[in-house]
Structures are given as structure tokens and as C-alpha cells.
């Protein structure tokens, strides 16, 4: 009896995971951009039949992408249809905008941490697409299988990135990998849920040319062009089935026809009789063919084509570089930007207009630009300063209809839509000069309320009429956040307003009360109640940090204070 052993990739530091703070996002309205708000028409992509993505639906986030992914969890879990990422390849090269030479073990840890959150964000029918080269592709395949499950791996696409091999090697690579995973496996078919929703590629002229109008003794078939398909099966490889070796009658000659020697029919005798009765067997222009062919009419064919696993028609790095030069000038381009045609194919296959696309390694902003032109909603995250020097100006050109390159003509893009620009908020807690954790002075009341809602599992939804309703977890469960100290009389008034049918979590600095009097209230002190929840004041989880070092010691979990605590303890602080 054999026992199956689970194989997994191991590396130093694998089991060390960051305890991420769920930051809030702060909009910088000076960098947010909307066509209509800048005196430009809010145009529609008429050619693709999709409206320009709405202003509120598109987010450009500047900051560490691991913290940004964590910040998106509360609102976007299960809502992202497609994630495309082009992470640093870990080649040892020093790129202008990335430290692309992180030690192998560190690289695996950093990628793993991001993939785990990405999987959470993906919809059940969502998919992840990652570009990578040979240096880490095979390790990434194993790592991705651990996170998503081997059954959810879809394919490894070879994308031709250059038109010829480099001259510095005996064998020069001209391709990158595009590894694709689905969020979940279908319980009905052998495919993943994402594959069942994938779109076919448009039919080509070459594919349509296979369908022709053929002459027959009774004249051309009125059902239109068709393609001829062999009705026999080769006996090699065990495909010969004796029961499928039988004669059929040629309706034009009246003779019995048998399969060629060593072959059999592909269909049962009943099916061949049905095909014959429906005039779906082609016996040649004169009706004398020794083996009939089955007709597959053009109108019956799939309205699209299956995408191959080798892509040599979606643009090269040099095409993308040329596009960037035209947008920003000769010196303002990335080392290996991805062409818009590559993203167009990914987004076409994986999404439909209105779906949400995420890229947490935005780079030059190609994913957002292409998603925008194709009528998809998008979220991009970028840490580098090129978020301001490249991405923002590029997106403005797309929105203004001033980007003629890439896929603009192919999809008939004219401009429109917009995006909101966000920065990650600083850490909620910082140490004061005595080394004590305190609420960050940069936080105002609104920021504190939103941050506490995230930390305590509430949806931030401040009421315009009820001061103690800052958020809610259900229709009857609410949260109130204040830095003030609450007295017994204040709590009594709040408790009466809440009523017996609702409950309220109060996060405050301190309180003094007869705690047994208010069963519909629960009180917790800040910052004590959140000290244990995550790593505080840690801003950089990027690809240039030493994640294998021991993390800073975090505070132990503090007791939570509820209304049934002793009044003396409750009044502490």
C-alpha cells in the first residue's frame, strides 16, 4: 500500500508571514482625473460597444503593493475578474524602476505573500495571469500550484517578446512565460470555472477560408459553405473498433462502401444513417467518392477560436518601447514594457466589458490603459515615482483621447472616463517619544473611524444623521469610534438611542460607567484593543527589503474591555 506524499517547494523563511495592517486609502483629488471635470466630453467607446469606465470605478494606488492588496480586501474580496501582474523577474539586473535582483528565497516569499491575497480578491470565475522568464518560471509554477491548487492551473503560454535571439548566448531566449491560474475548479466539467467563462478569439480569415461551397450531384447545399471532416478513424494507437467496421450505401451509385483497410467509421451505424438522411455526407462532386466526408457547416461552427498556447502575434517589447517613446520622449521609457496587444488578448479572453481588472505591479500603466480602452474597470498599484511621471500622464492621454498608439485604433477608442488617485494612509499607530504605542497624530476623526472599521471587521458607512453610526457589520450591528472619554450619562443616552433591537460596539479612549446597565453596548479601548492585530508602523514590504530578518517584536494581546468589567479597570487611562 502506497501513501501519497504532498510535494511542496521549500526555502529559508517560507513560514514567516507578515501580519499586515489593513490600511485605509486617501484620495489625492489633485491627481484624480475625469474627462468631464476637465472640460472634455465623456466619450464612449463606440467600436467596442462598451462605455468608458466610470470615474469612481478605476483606482490608481500609490504605495507598497502588499499593503495596498491588504487594503483592498475589505471591499473587493471575491470581486476581481482578472489579475495580470508583471513582477520583477529576479534576474540580477538593476532596472531603472525596480531592484530586479532579489535573493531567490526572498523573491519566493514576497511573491507568495502577494499571491495569497490575490486569490482572496479573485471572483470564483476569476483568473490570474503572470508574466515571467525562465529564471523563476518553474519555481513560480510550483509556488502558484501551492497557493491555488494544481487542479486550478490552466496553462503556460509562450509569448514571443523579441524578433530575434540575443547574440551573447549560444541559445537565446525570445519568449517569456505567461502562467495562468483560476480561482476555483468546476464541480461539473473538467475545466476550471474561469475557463468555462473565457471568451474565444475572433475568427480569422484563414479559419473561415476552410468553409467552401462544393458542387454535388444534386447541386450546392442550400445550407451554405461547409468544411469536410473525415468520417473514418485510424486504427493506430488502439482507435480501431471492430463494431464500427460496417458498410454504408452510397445513395448515388447504390454500392456498399466500407472503411479503408485498417480503419473504421468514427460513428455508429445509426448515426451514419442519420447523417445520410440529413444529407450531411459529402460523396464528391460526382457522387463517386469511395469514402464520404461529413459536412460541418459554417453557421454551426463556434463563433470564435480557441487561443493557442504560443503567442507570436501580440506585439514585442520593442513595439511597447516605441509606444512609450512617442508618449514620453526618448529617455522616458521602461526597459521591457509589455505591449498593449498582449494585454488586449489577456483581457479579451478573461473578462467582459464592465468587469474589474487588477494589476498590483503597474509599471508603466499598460494594464490600466488597455482595460480602460476596452471598457473594463481597473485597479492599479505602483510604489515607484514613475506612478507620477509615467502612469498618471499616460492615463490622462488615454482619457483625453490623445494616445493614438497601442490598441487605440483596433478598438476604436476615442477617450472618456476617469480614475481616482489614492495613497496608502500612514500606519494607524506609532510609538511616541517614550516608546508607547499611540494613535498616529496624522489621523483625524474620519480617518480613525474608517481605520477602526477595517480593523474590527465593519463596513465604513458613517451616518449623516446619527453621530454614533460610523459603520456596520449587519443591519442591526454598528460601530462608534471616538478618542474621547465617555461617562455613564453619555453611554446611557447612546444606549437608549440604540435600543434593544440593535447593538453597538464603542471604541473609545476611556469610559466610566455602571457597566451592567447597557446590555446593547460593548466597549473597547483604543489603541489597546488593536495592538495585537498586526504589525504597526511597517511601511515597506517591497522587493528591496530583507524579509528574512526577524520581524520587530509586536505587543502581546491586551485584554478587551467590555461593560461587564470592573468600573475601576474601565476608568483606567
From TrEMBL:
Gene Ontology process terms (BP): methylation
Q: Name one Pfam family in it.
A: N6_N4_Mtase
- Recorded catalytic activity of this chain's protein: a 2'-deoxyadenosine in DNA + S-adenosyl-L-methionine = an N(6)-methyl-2'-deoxyadenosine in DNA + S-adenosyl-L-homocysteine + H(+)
Q: Where is this region: Disordered?
A: 553-573
Q: Which Gene3D superfamilies match?
A: Vaccinia Virus protein VP39 (3.40.50.150)
The GO terms this record gives for MF are: DNA binding; N-methyltransferase activity; site-specific DNA-methyltransferase (adenine-specific) activity
* The name this protein goes by in its record: site-specific DNA-methyltransferase (adenine-specific)
What is its EC class? transferase
User: Into which family does the record put it?
Assistant: Belongs to the N(4)/N(6)-methyltransferase family.
Native species of this protein?
Rivihabitans pingtungensis
Q: Which UniProt keywords apply?
A: Methyltransferase, S-adenosyl-L-methionine, Transferase
Q: Give the Enzyme Commission number.
A: 2.1.1.72
Q: List the lineage, top down.
A: Bacteria, Pseudomonadati, Pseudomonadota, Betaproteobacteria, Neisseriales
Q: Where is the DNA methylase N-4/N-6 domain?
A: 80-389
SUPFAM superfamilies cross-referenced by the UniProt entry:
S-adenosyl-L-methionine-dependent methyltransferases (SSF53335)
